[in-house]
Amino acid sequence: MGSDVINLPNRNQLDRGTAIALLVLHAGAIAAPFYFEWKAVLVAFVLYWIAGGWGVCMGYHRLHTHRGFKCPLWLEYLLAVCGSLALEGGPISWVATHRIHHQKSDQPGDPHSPREGKFWSHMGWIIFGQARHNATRMMSKYAPDLAKHRFYIWLNNWHWVPLLIVSIGLTLWGGLPMLLWALCFRVVAGLHATWLVNSATHIWGSRRFATRDDSRNNWWVALLTFGEGWHNNHHAHPVSARHGLAWYEFDITYYTLKALESVGLVRNLMVARIDEGRLQEREVA
Ligand SMILES: [Zn+2]
Ligand SMILES: [Zn+2]
Q1: CA quadruple 137, 48, 31, 173: dihedral, nearest 10
Q2: Would residue 72 count as lying in a domain?
Q3: What is the pLDDT of residue 165?
Q4: Closest ligand, as measured to the CA of 106
Q5: What's the predicted TM-score (pTM) here?
Q6: Ligand 1 geometric centre to CA of 251 (Å)
Q7: What range defines the domain where residue 92 resides?
Q8: Potential cystine with 143: which of 83, 95, 97, 171 (Cβ 3.0-4.6 Å)?
Q9: How far is the CA of 218 from the centre of ligand 1 (A)?
Q10: How many angstroms is it from 154 CA to the middle of ligand 1?
Q11: How far is ligand 2, taken at its centre, from the CA of residue 234, in Å?
């Protein structure tokens, strides 16, 4: 990438705004059980799936970063808005960071490698590493395909706006329990689940493919992240929209994509097959 390589892991600078936001959200998450309400828990669970499963796994990761399938533009945009509800930054920043991770996996320049410390790979890089969620123009160099869309530029700059609107609406409807569960607890759980893909699945689990990084297949991370835990499969076949390659590797995001394919909303699903060890593209008949 020449001289303008982004030096993401700058460990010396505390991102005060991010640290305070995370502190407040964690406090809210810890308070949530004291305001238990089934309605709030149910809404939190549904939002966890919408933001994490549809937004981050299906949208930000398998579509926007790796282009593992095609879908109508309105659905692309909708998935990006769902992704913003996870409070992991806008699509351009997320995609740029993740593309750098694939380029430099567990080598110098990887934004979040456990080789630089377990805590660092989990959340240290967010708090101390200048994750640059708002540096739209700089991050666009790594996501020029997204930066062509004014909508993605807007959403990247204002990634917290959809979450703010949803949170205000839910709080007006369900009061404090709803705020604590559907915002605080749900966002914190989603963040740690995503961070486990960066930390745990580069530390614990089995390796089917001899990739040049430390990536692993980890069943419990896969359960928490709608299939993203089959991370060694993913590093070996990044474009594949299917991460769980064996029948026993539960990958709910892939099953969702198959359902969307059957109703004509998704096409050109890229699927890696372990028996042949190569990527196959399946077209809708
Ligand atoms: Zn990885
Ligand atoms: Zn990836």
Answers
A1: 100
A2: yes
A3: 98
A4: 1
A5: 0.91
A6: 17
A7: 7-282
A8: 95
A9: 12
A10: 28
A11: 7
Q: Is residue 240 part of a domain?
A: yes
At residue 2, the pLDDT reads 36
Q: What is the mean pLDDT of residues 176-197?
A: 98
Say which range, 142-151, 208-217, 269-278, has the weakest mean pLDDT.
Answer: 269-278
Distance CA 62, CA 69 (A): 8
User: Which ligand number lies closest to the CA of residue 199?
Assistant: 1
Relative to the alpha carbon of 62, which ligand is closest?
A: 2
Distance 96 CA to ligand 2 centre (A): 11
Q: Give residue 45 CA to ligand 2 midpoint distance, Å.
A: 24
Question: How many distinct structural domains can be found in the chain?
Answer: 1
Q: Does a structural domain hold residue 1?
A: no
Residues 127-181 have pLDDT tens digits of: 986 655 556 777 888 999 999 999 999 999 999 999 999 999 999 999 999 999 9
Contacts of 200 (CB under 8 A, 6+ apart): 218, 221, 229
| Tokens describing residue 32 | 């949530």
Does residue 14 fall inside a structural domain? Answer: yes
How far is the centre of ligand 1, averaged over its atoms, from the C-alpha of 125 (Å)? 14
Helix (H, G, I), strand (E, B) or coil at 138: helix
